[in-house]
Each structure stands twice: as C-alpha cells, then as structure tokens.
Amino acid sequence: MILLAAEEAKNPLLPDVGEMVIGGFAFLVVLFFVGRLLVPRIQKVLAERVDAIEGGLKRAADAQEEAQQTLRQYKDQLAEARHEASRLREEAREQGAQIKAELRDEAQAEARRLIEAAHAQIEADRQQAFAQLRTEIGRLSVELAGRIVGESLEDEARQRRTVDRFLEELESSRAAVR
Description:
By secondary structure, the chain is mainly alpha-helical.
C-alpha cells in the first residue's frame, strides 16, 4: 500500500529519475553514433548534391555561354556571307555590263567591217561594171564611128585611140556638169 500510496503521490508529468538517466544515456549514445557516423555521411551526400547542382548550373551556364558565342559566330558568318553574296552580285553585274559593252563594241566593229567590205565589193563591182561598160561602149562607138565614117576601124590600135579619146571627152563633159 505504501507503494500504492507513493505511486499516487507522484506527479504523472514528471518521469522517473531512473528512466531519465537511462533515457539520457541512450540519447547520448544515439547522439554520438548519429554525430559520428550519420552526420558525416549526410554532409557528404549533401556536399555531393550541392556539387552536382552547382556543377550542373555551371555546366548549364557554360553551355548557354557557348551557345550564345556560337550564335554570335553564326550571325557574324551569316552577315559575312550576305556581304560576300552582295559583293559577288555586284561583281557579276559589273562583269555583265563589261561583257555587254565588249559585245556591243565587237558587234559595231563587225558591222563596220561588213560595211567596209560591202563598200569595197560595191567599188570592185562598179570598177568591173565600168570596165565592161567601157569595153562595150568602145565596141559600140567603133562600130558607130565605122558606120559614120564609112570605113572599117578594125585596126586595134586605131580603135583603142578612138575609144580612149571618146571616153575622155565623155568624162570631161560629165565633170563639167557636176
């Protein structure tokens, strides 16, 4: 009964001193093991995670910087390619104009050459026609003179002199008309 009365007199909110000592000792042992074994492992895992996250962030930042640098290089190359294409187009235009001018000059030179050749041919044809006409006029004039004079002018030297005299008179009269 005394125990019962002693148990009843105890405050239920206050634990037993023996339990407190055992609980405190057990807490210190658990605290020691947790502090010595688990905390370093947890800190190691946390440090690895921090490294992984920071390394990932750094790698991502590096990758982003590299991507931006590659983009800048791409834009620079694109601008340079556009500039080069523009320059090539301008050169092609200039070469086209130059070729066109050369072809025009060649065509004009060819036209002049053809005109000169045609003039030369016309002059040669005129000279030939004049020579044929002179021969024909000479023959006809000798024949006509022979009929007028009543004698034959078959002698070639005489015929030639008569024809030459006639043509000279004809040319001098034509020159006087001009």
